Model the fold of this input.
Amino acid sequence: MNIRIYCINTGEYIEVPGGSTLSQIASQIEPRLGFRPICARVNNKTEWMGFAVYMPKTIEFQDRTVGSGPRVYTRSLCMLLYSALHDVLPGTRLRIEHSISHGYYCRLGGYDEVPQEIIDGVLARMHELAAADEPFLRHEELTEDVKQMFESRGLHSKSELLRTTRELYTTYYSLGDVCDSYYGALAPSTGHVGVFDLIRYKQGFLLMPFDPSDPVRPAQYIPQEKMYQAFTDYVNFNRIIGVYDVGGLNTCVMNRKTADLINVAEALHEKALAHISDEITRRYREGGARIVLISGPSSSGKTTTTKRLAIQLMTNLLKPQMISLDDYFVDRERTPRDADGDYDYESLYALDLKQFNADLNAILAGEEVELPSYNFEKGCRQYKGKRVRLEEGSILLIEGIHGLNPELTAYIPEQMKFRLYVSALTTLSIDDHNWVPTTDNRLLRRIIRDFKYRGTTAEETIRRWPSVRRGEDKWIFPYQENADAMFNSSFVFELGVMKDYAESILRGVHGDVPEYAEAYRLRKFLSYFKPISSTLLPSTSLLREFLGGSSFKY
Done:
């Protein structure tokens, strides 16, 4: 029996036999489609190309560069890597830990440093598998059977996660005789994953996907030594507390050890901020560091970090005074526009740089300066009598996304500046082959905060997120290595705390909008976490900036 589907790509209704897979439908309209899809959104929900259609649907095919395509490509590339490693070094444990330097940092069990010849051999085998265009096969079986299969293959992090999530059935993929699980769709076959590279890096190597700006070549490595060290410090912390992945975190929750975990993680934040405060104080007493510039991407916790740093500086007998860069926004009608025509508040030129530098120089010269306040409702700057003068022992804390951009403070002497970069550098993994993306962590924080404090729906926050990310790529990330110090604002437990808050808000995104695909993916992602009560958080916790209940005023 034929069914009628609507293809968004071609803007037409198509008659197809009931039970046709997305791959078969794509083949039917290939000349009009104009590309080889890696996945599709069916009724605004991402599906793999083997998904069978039995009822009328709306379908949007996607290649590797748009929508859900990049995630599907990256997952498939990870399985290609694991399969190649299995062929070259059978039984070797692979850990894909986090993203860095435009790639994904990988470690091999049993190797303090991975030899170049092993990397070369694995890379050559990956190219062979890609050229063979072998299918990624999808399976769904009883979880107990899948768990036992993973255990027998040494994939213990995967079996522990399945033990704690307690689903009846589990989906996994196979490539030849290699089996693995990924938390989302994979490409139809290895031939869809043909652009990649492996680069030796530190104790392991980087898995480099395609370059988003030039998809026919692999992404190019960029040095991020300070970022690597910030990640490494927290990976070592995870090792000490024995929580590497979601299965381990869930086990901690089930064993009622969450309170201890939270207390230790909060203490780690406090210790890091104390160390940064001591370094700022040392430079201050040597005649520098009169201005602390605190930068980081959206929802990294800059505001709470600034407030907690101020407390640490006060214990060092300094007098912090805080300035927000947001108060220097130009009037709304003068704000630059982004590629979508929306106001680009992430642009450096959304700020009145001339007035900002004039005020700073006057303050450093010992003058009293009246600071502006930005009225977001009216979209204009106002002056309400807020005045600042540096006294003996005073130090300025300036918080905003552009703090590390040299152009922001081009007329301020270098020795007067201390730059602090704040970001939620998530080191928790779902399992050995699936990491928790830093961007997902920040997006969930923002969804909760914007809904709770700004009256913004999850749909609107998700819709705006690509523009925010483009702004970060242009205005923030290129300058992060300029930092004098980095503060990792993530918590190993925080997704468990945010779970119930975020799921409730995400359920408000309805299936008739494109943003539903991302909302559904995030809900699926959160389903792997056991909930953790926010009542266990102290009132000074950085997470309370997003969840509420903070003792700080925002």
